[in-house]
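Sequence in, structure out. Go.
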Amino acid sequence: MAIASSMALAVVLLSACTSVEGHGARPVSAGKGPRVPVAHGAEALGSEAPGSGAPGSGAQGSGVALQEQQVLRFDDGLTWEATLEAALSRHPELLAAQAELDALAAETEAAGRRPNPTLNVQVEDIGNEASFTGPSGGQTTVILTHTLERGGKRAAREKYSEAKRQAAIAAFAVQTQGVLSEARSRFLSALSAQETLELQTRLQQQVDRFHDAVATRVEAGKASGVDQQQLALLAANARLERQAAEAHARTSRLVLAQLWDGPVEFGRLKAEWPAASAPPALADLMQRWDGSPGRVRLERELAISEAAVESAASERSQDWALSAGFRKREQTNDWTAVVGFDVPIPVFDAGRSTLEAARARRRRSVHQMEAALREARTALGDLHGRLAVSHSALTSLQGGALDEARSLYESVREGYEQGRFELLQVIEAQKSYFELLARHRGARSQHHHAWAELESLLGERSKEVTWN
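Output:
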């Protein structure tokens, strides 16, 4: 009962002392974590993030992740929009990044809290003399100690945690755009491999039919057996090319399926290639990048180093510790007050080195930002050049060259069946047509892969490219 009474009085006394501590910024609730644009780069940074709940809300999500996931099926074929939606909702790296955002939100809330008081209970003079034996013969001291933070430590600590959280939000937006770019590149690769397989299948079928026609002409004495042998070699090569295309298409589909966390089943990819688009002016791209998530991330990472300097400066102010309590002598039943005041003496460590280190890291962050800006400008210039070259190639190939090559191949093949051309001329026309077709598809793939990289760098879905 004596100890309980002493504790109650100590709390009352100390509550009056803590009012001298400065009022810091109000803590940010972890349940109001900012939201990152997760689709199309349309939402601005700073709105509420999907799935960011109060601290501990991620435990339920981790429990779900440990469970066996159902198979993700696309029975009607896989479209680009379905690929995009599944990648954003089930990509493992995005799920991990969202969990880190929840953790940083909880840390930001904790950073705004005052340090906990400490309770010290001492029982002294036990068994010193015959008249002071046992706890009832000594004295009991109850002391409550509270640290008074000085120099704005709590506000600086909270600002530093918030800067880290904002940088993580910007990094999450960049990572989201990276996943979108990766999804688009993998989808394009799988779509291109699917079309290549179809092309090689059609080529093999044409060679097989042509081989049968040549065999008929050989039997009728209208062609030599050498022609039949040459066609047999072409047919064998077409089968090998088809098998290689089939293996490549299978691998591309597996790589595409790895975008999602869990098993997935899909049939044919259903999409039409967007029309080739000329890149905008390089100056326009530079201006658009200034507002991109990548630029925002660089600025917020610099803000972390600024907050670290402020935090290190606040640490140079020594904290005070205020103690208040009571002591009771059990023999005489006397009560006495106990008051203490602890002030550290910065003899050996005044925090100067820590502050200099923080300032040096801030200078490093400034130089790193300058290097990143230079690298981004170089990347934009490279992508602009690649887009211009691929667009020019596609424009020239689509301007009638493919149609002329196909028409020539069909005319020579029909003329051979009528005895007007040699087999070598048919082979050359076929080779020219399919080589031109391969160049067209390669240029188209490079063009849209470059657009995917540009969208990732700009952090937005390009208005110049429209998917069907």
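Check: The longest strand covers residues 139-148. The mean pLDDT is 78.
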